[in-house]
């Protein structure tokens, strides 16, 4: 009898433990899920830094004759993640306080024009192309005019997915100065030699 009573008690005890463990385990799992969600909500987004290495060529100053086509290259390296995308902007500056966004290539490779450069006349003169697997961007300015003289700034932003949202990871900037020589001055043999040298380095 004693053996049968012990077995009965063991069965009752194990059944009671299962009844207790079921709700407790479920409650613990819910608590863990809530804690994990709170932790993810507080997880910091990537800090935006100047990690991108951006260079513009030719530079720091290049001379073109009026009516020439200018070719400026923006080279990008040192991305924080290889699968991140890049958004590239070219800005024209007459002075540090006078900057005008000209053209942009979005992270998906779509070219957009801004401000006065949305006019058909300017859109025909500007080209922005991606080369070398997204590490080199070529900016063309066709039929240069004296008003095109100034500083050209390439601004690049690295963009990646963070918790299913597009987030800026890093930035980089570089610039060059374009000088447009009038038609008469460009006939000077000295200018021609300098200009050809710049073409060689392009």
UniProtKB/TrEMBL annotation:
<keyword id="KW-1003">Cell membrane</keyword>
<protein>
    <recommendedName>
        <fullName>V-set and transmembrane domain-containing protein 4</fullName>
    </recommendedName>
</protein>
<dbReference type="GO" id="GO:0005576">
    <property type="term" value="C:extracellular region"/>
</dbReference>
<dbReference type="InterPro" id="IPR013106">
    <property type="entry name" value="Ig_V-set"/>
</dbReference>
<dbReference type="GO" id="GO:0005886">
    <property type="term" value="C:plasma membrane"/>
</dbReference>
<dbReference type="InterPro" id="IPR003599">
    <property type="entry name" value="Ig_sub"/>
</dbReference>
<keyword id="KW-0812">Transmembrane</keyword>
<dbReference type="Pfam" id="PF07686">
    <property type="entry name" value="V-set"/>
</dbReference>
<comment type="function">
    <text>Peptide Lv enhances L-type voltage-gated calcium channel (L-VGCC) currents in retinal photoreceptors.</text>
</comment>
<dbReference type="InterPro" id="IPR036179">
    <property type="entry name" value="Ig-like_dom_sf"/>
</dbReference>
<keyword id="KW-0393">Immunoglobulin domain</keyword>
<keyword id="KW-1015">Disulfide bond</keyword>
<keyword id="KW-0964">Secreted</keyword>
<keyword id="KW-1133">Transmembrane helix</keyword>
<feature type="signal peptide">
    <location>
        <begin position="1"/>
        <end position="37"/>
    </location>
</feature>
<keyword id="KW-0472">Membrane</keyword>
<feature type="domain" description="Ig-like">
    <location>
        <begin position="46"/>
        <end position="182"/>
    </location>
</feature>
<dbReference type="InterPro" id="IPR007110">
    <property type="entry name" value="Ig-like_dom"/>
</dbReference>
<dbReference type="InterPro" id="IPR051102">
    <property type="entry name" value="IgSF_V-set/TM_domain"/>
</dbReference>
<keyword id="KW-0325">Glycoprotein</keyword>
<dbReference type="InterPro" id="IPR013783">
    <property type="entry name" value="Ig-like_fold"/>
</dbReference>
<keyword id="KW-0732">Signal</keyword>
């Amino acid at each position: 009898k004693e053996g049968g009573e012990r077995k009965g008690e063991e069965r009752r005890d194990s059944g009671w433990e299962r009844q207790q463990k079921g709700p407790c385990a479920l409650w613990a799992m819910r608590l863990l899920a809530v804690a994990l969600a709170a932790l993810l909500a507080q997880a910091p987004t990537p800090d935006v830094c100047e990690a991108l290495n951006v260079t513009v060529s030719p530079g720091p100053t290049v001379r073109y004759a009026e009516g020439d086509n200018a070719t400026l290259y923006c080279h990008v390296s040192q991305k924080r993640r290889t699968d991140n995308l890049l958004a590239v902007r070219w800005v024209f500056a007459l002075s540090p306080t006078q900057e005008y966004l000209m053209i942009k290539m979005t992270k998906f490779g779509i070219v957009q024009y801004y401000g006065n450069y949305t006019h058909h006349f300017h859109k025909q003169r500007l080209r922005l192309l991606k080369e070398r697997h997204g590490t080199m961007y070529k900016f063309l300015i066709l039929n240069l005019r004296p008003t095109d003289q100034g500083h050209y700034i390439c601004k690049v932003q690295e963009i990646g997915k963070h918790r299913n949202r597009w987030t800026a990871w890093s930035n980089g900037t570089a610039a060059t100065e374009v000088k447009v020589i009038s038609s008469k001055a460009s006939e000077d043999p000295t200018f021609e030699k300098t200009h050809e040298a710049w073409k060689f380095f392009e």
